[in-house]
Design brief:
This protein has 214 residues and is of the alpha+beta class. It has seven helices and ten strands. The protein has two domains: 22-98, ATP-grasp fold, A domain (Dna Ligase, domain 1), CATH 3.30.1490; 103-213, D-amino Acid Aminotransferase, Chain A, domain 1 (2-Layer Sandwich), CATH 3.30.470. Helix 2 (29-39) crosses helix 3 and helix 5 crosses helix 7.
């Protein structure tokens, strides 16, 4: 199974009107600093490589960067970490991304040999591995089914404004679920999709990381 290149993945998402959050892939210090200044601080830096799936595990992510000097330091730190921990990885670049706040969710797809494409939804980030609070549906997934998925996870009350928390934009989440289902039905060569995390708040569902393989 081959991992897709970053630009190919983002272009596909945009074709299906799934926005990838404010970001730019760069290859040097000055370009990183310029992109960060354009987006406004804080920003996040992430290594982009088909050979690296879990970026945080190899020191490929730096968060909470508040100025241009720290951007350059973060860029060099990532390169040093990757060279030490994954020396054979081919680096496409470093992603400079505006940092956003909200609840982390995951929307994914896996092509099962028996059932065909299956959509997954649940809490994102590290929680998907620790809490395993996820639900599944066989494609195609329509709006009604997507709403059911959001309601079925154990953490649904958190997403709906539990104990003073602001309710997330459920419609935006449902929209992404149905569009990932459409991609799965249209693009048979894609075997896996992971949008993890998607950071959601009361207004938006911001896709901040993507992985696809086929």
């Amino acid at each position: 199974m081959e991992q897709f290149k970053f630009k190919k993945m983002v272009n596909l998402l945009e074709k299906y009107k799934i926005k990838f959050f404010k970001s730019k892939m760069v290859k040097d210090l000055d370009a990183a600093a310029a992109a960060a200044k354009k987006f406004g601080f804080p920003v996040v830096l992430k290594v982009i490589s088909k050979d690296i799936i879990h970026k945080s595990d190899v020191g490929g992510v730096v968060t909470g960067i508040m100025d241009e000097k720290k951007v350059k330091e973060g860029f060099l730190k990532i390169m040093k970490n990757i060279k030490r921990k994954v020396p054979k990885a081919k680096i496409e670049g470093v992603l400079v991304q505006k940092q956003c706040k909200g609840e982390e969710i995951i929307i994914g797809m896996k092509r099962d040999k028996q059932f065909g494409p299956v959509i997954m939804f649940g809490l994102g980030g590290i929680f998907v591995e620790v809490m395993k609070d996820v639900v599944f549906r066989i494609c195609p997934v329509d709006r009604k089914m997507a709403i059911e998925m959001v309601n079925e996870i154990k953490a649904a009350p958190v997403l709906k404004g539990f104990r003073g928390k602001k309710k997330i934009n459920i419609d935006a989440v449902v929209d992404i679920i149905t569009k990932i289902s459409k991609i799965a039905m249209d693009k048979k060569k894609i075997l896996e999709i992971d949008l993890n995390p998607i950071i959601v708040d009361e207004k938006n569902a911001n896709v901040v990381d993507v992985r696809m393989a086929g």
